[in-house]
Write a structure and sequence with these properties.
Length: about 450
């Protein structure tokens, strides 16, 4: 199956592990935690829950803390459903306090600076937190202001611009799709790394399906403008999606990046690969802003040259600080940034962190880059893209002998649509964030020697 935060102090002299500890004692005014998790999103909560369940002899209740100031935990994969009229926003969030696993302490604050040489970090409120082990899962930064006119357009409740990358705007997306009576509809995707890279076209396919059902398809001039060179990063699925685009009469603009919006004239300006500019007017615009690493990570000793937390792509251990691990959207892992990827990463991280805690020199678990993108292509159909590192397909159901389930997953299926619409949101709240869901392994925790 797929898919979809009294402490022990170790010193260099008192441990036989290879961990580098740089401070013999925590400052008197510092709060110390055996395990400190940065981020109470999907990655942070899930790995904390799994660690508390799988390493009870090493991490006891009260010895792990999660730092995050967000009051609400969102099931963000569901925002595509909201923008497509398939889910209610209110069903896709819970108070963060209800999601943090029992046995973990929630620190209501943000990280200001990291000091891994001292096994500590400073918070925005001026507190110092120290740790034996650090798990960094802060998510990424959505750069709304990078496109002039975008924020203005999103804030206008009666405007033509929306984005499913914000919960409230996802509701506006559905409102705009319903109100659309024909004309020019633009859907964009930026160049570079974004979370759930299939989402920009998922909402487009669902809008197209809605307009076809409403009888206005022939009145609609639909364009998908992407800063990427193809419909998807994995060639197998890119070819299938491009075939759908051509079959359904959708204009494709590739290596074409949205750079500004004039809301007064309903004009979107794009840059092209050859340095040129294209202007297109619109009656509906769904825009996806560029994204990147958080400044607090980019400016820290934990970052790689691109600003992500620098980790080994197989073990998830930091490249320099051996008591630091990272997973999820903020990590340097070269795979798609999705909840499905986290379902494969979390058990690997837990296996390897436990090995470090036990003083083992070898880290047993290896992550192979598994991720999944459930690509809605219309009502009652979904293309279930599953792949590992190097954009290699790795399909769970392709060899199934069940007629409605088996076969190449570049063919949209009804059963996969039901997974996305009904099963994944249910399993997220009931099992995923509780540490008992392991992606394509379902409820069976993968052994340490298996990558996902």
């Amino acid at each position: 199956m797929v898919l979809i935060g009294t402490c022990l102090r170790r010193t260099a002299a008192s441990t036989s592990t290879s961990i580098r500890f740089f401070s013999l004692n925590s400052p008197a005014n510092a709060q110390h935690h055996k395990v400190l998790v940065v981020g109470a999103g999907t990655a942070g909560v899930t790995v904390a829950a799994q660690l508390l369940k799988q390493a009870k002899n090493l991490v006891k209740s009260g010895e792990i803390a999660i730092i995050d100031s967000s009051k609400t935990h969102n099931y963000q994969p569901g925002w595509t459903l909201v923008g497509s009229g398939l889910a209610n926003l209110s069903d896709l969030s819970k108070p963060t306090t209800e999601v943090v696993p029992e046995g973990a302490k929630l620190v209501d604050d943000k990280v200001a600076t990291f000091e891994p040489e001292k096994n500590s970090l400073q918070t925005v409120r001026g507190e110092e937190l120290t740790y034996d082990y650090l798990i960094v899962a802060p998510g990424l930064q959505i750069n709304w202001s990078a496109i002039p006119g975008l924020e203005e357009g999103l804030k206008d409740p009666s405007g033509k611009v929306s984005s499913i990358y914000d919960g409230q705007s996802a509701e506006k997306t559905w409102k705009n799709v319903q109100a659309f009576k024909g004309g020019k509809a633009l859907f964009t995707q930026p160049a570079g790394v974004i979370k759930c890279a299939g989402a920009p076209q998922k909402v487009m396919w669902m809008a197209l399906s809605t307009w076809k059902k409403a009888g206005i398809r022939e009145k609609t001039d639909l364009t998908f403008a992407t800063g990427m060179p193809a419909m998807f990063a994995v060639p197998k699925y890119a070819q299938a999606l491009n075939a759908l685009r051509e079959e359904r009469g959708v204009e494709g603009l590739f290596a074409t990046n949205l750079v500004s919006i004039d809301n007064a004239t309903s004009t979107a300006t794009f840059s092209t690969a050859d340095g040129g500019k294209i202007e297109k007017t619109f009656d509906l615009l769904h825009a996806v802003p560029p994204q990147g690493p958080l400044e607090v990570i980019k400016n820290s000793p934990l970052a790689d040259a691109a600003g992500w937390v620098s980790v080994d792509p197989a073990t998830l251990q930091h490249s320099q600080y051996k008591n630091v691990f990272s997973l999820g959207d903020g990590s340097s892992l070269p795979t798609s940034k999705t909840a499905a990827a986290i379902s494969g990463q979390a058990p690997v991280l837990v296996h390897n962190l436990v090995a470090v805690m036990e003083g083992k020199s070898e880290l047993p678990a290896k992550y192979d880059g598994y991720t999944s993108c459930p690509l809605l292509t219309g009502h009652n159909e979904l293309m279930l893209a599953e792949f590992v590192y190097n954009a290699q397909p790795s399909e769970t159901f392709a060899s199934s002998s069940i007629p409605f389930l088996g076969g190449s997953q570049d063919k949209p299926k009804y059963i996969f649509y039901l997974l996305k619409k009904n099963f994944f949101p249910w399993v997220y709240w009931k099992s995923f964030v509780k540490g008992t869901w392991f992606g394509r392994k379902a409820w069976s925790r993968p052994p340490a020697t298996v990558g996902h």
